[in-house]
Amino acid sequence: MVTCYNDSISQSGVNDTLTANTDALRRELLEKLLELGADCAGVARVEDLRDGPSERLFPNMKDHSRDHFAEEITTGLPHGAVYWEPDARSVLVYAVAHPAERPELDWWCGEIDPPGNKRLLAISREFRAYMAQAHPDIGVYSRRYHVERGGLYLKEAAVAAGLGCIGRNNLLVTPRYGPRVRLRAIDISVALEPTGPNDFDPCADCDAPCLKHCPQGAFDEQIYTPEETGLAHLPGRDGRYFRAACAVQMKVNEDSAQVGLMPEVCDHPEKIIKYCRKCELFCKIGR
To answer: pTM score > 0.85 for this model?
Structure first.
């Protein structure tokens, strides 16, 4: 059973007229992702994700920080635009938990993917192999992380799939793990009924310790407004998340990284980068 929301295969938006075959396929694919190591998974519709809030906001963002990826666009589209395969109909969004007691899951050993990323990639690789055997007639497209290299806006997809909500810390907040998850997605060529969104919202009455502990004050002032952007869904909900401030902290973490060994990642000493997670770790949900 998917663990991020209640009765996840049969709740929220399930149409009673779904054919037995489509319903069974959805259950099969989500259960396979869990079997392969995902901690939660859900389905979103491609049509619901096209031209979403983040994609519409991107051209007018005030802080294109860390945009060295702009020099490595592989989709042939403008920076920030999402590429979709012509026959993609559904997005399978899955997450692995990143608990506070396992910080090394997101430690970078030089330029080598951290253990958490390796686990996400392994799930994708094994799922594709399964689909090639069990459903060779279905198109399967693993998503990269960065939009510029073939990714999508994962948090928006996760909300549409019912995994949680976007919190005031601008992170996906799940019922079981809070924001301490890492996400990835796979597109398929079959139209499946979505498993979300739902009405989960733990931020409404929270005193937001996640915002108060940001070392760079990334939530201290409103950067975007609905009137200015024409969008109701803004970074940090009300436009208070400033990505450039977050990038400053990432640079601090990179500059202060110490050389060490991570045997599970590489067999030689490298700088081990431990990025700030205060907005995750101070969230009260899922502790």
So the answer is: yes
Count: domains in the chain? 1
pLDDT digits (tens, 9 = 90+) for 61-76: 877 655 555 557 889 9
* Domain extent at residue 142: 20-205
Question: Tokens representing 212?
Answer: 């108060």
SS3 139: coil
Asked whether the beta carbons of 280 and 169 are under 8 A apart, the reply is: yes
**275 in helix, strand or coil?**
coil
Q: Is residue 85 part of a domain?
A: yes
277 within domain boundaries = no
> Does 113 score more than 90 pLDDT?
no
| Residue the block writes with tokens 């559904």 | 90
> What pLDDT sits at residue 90?
98
**What is the reported pLDDT for 177?**
98
- Residue 146 clears pLDDT 80, i.e. is over it: yes
Q: Is residue 129 part of a domain?
A: yes
Look at residues 177, 131, 172 and name the one whose alpha carbon lies nearest to residue 25.
131
272: which strand partners? Answer: 109, 258
237 Ramachandran zone, left/alpha/beta (phi>0; psi -120 to 50): left
Residue 35 lies in a domain: yes
Helices and strands (H, E) in the chain, number of each type: 9, 9
* Mean pLDDT score, 148-166: 97
CA angle 173, 107, 277 (to 5 degrees): 35
166 burial type by CB count under 10 A (0-12 exposed, 13-18 middle, 19+ buried)? buried
Helix (H, G, I), strand (E, B) or coil at 141: strand
pLDDT of residue 65: 54
Q: Is 172 helix (H, G, I), strand (E, B) or coil?
A: strand
Amino acid at position 157, single letter? A
Which DSSP state fits 248?
Answer: H
Q: 22-54: string of b/e by CB count within 10 Å (b at 16+)?
A: ebebbbebbebbbebebbbbbbbbbeebeebbb
225: Cα within 13 Å, side-chain hemisphere? 4
